[in-house]
Design brief:
With 86 residues, the protein is mainly alpha-helical. The chain has one domain. 84% of the residues lie in helices and 0% in strands. It starts with a helix and ends with a helix.
Length: 86
């Protein structure tokens, strides 16, 4: 599997694990969006920081962006859940 796809998948998994439970528990759209997107940004930043400082690689903005996009996809899913209830 391509590295960018793995970053996208990681962003989705992290955002589902961190962002979906607050929304499902409270049905508060802001809580779901905030936690999903924030968790994706933090995870992406931590991974790139680790790669740069520990592994000696370069900071890869494309990897960072793919991880965040995965989290944004989950945020859009949460919006769909919220407004799709009818």
């Amino acid at each position: 599997m391509n590295d960018k796809k793995l970053h996208l998948l990681a962003g989705v998994i992290i955002a589902v694990a961190v962002g979906l439970p607050p929304y499902l528990e409270s049905l508060n759209l802001f809580a779901g969006l905030w936690s999903a997107i924030t968790s994706g940004i933090i995870a992406a930043s931590m991974k790139e920081y680790f790669d740069y400082h520990i592994n000696g690689n370069r900071w890869d903005w494309w990897d960072w962006g793919c991880t965040v996009i995965g989290a944004i996809l989950v945020a859009l899913f949460i919006v769909g859940l919220h407004f799709g209830k009818g």
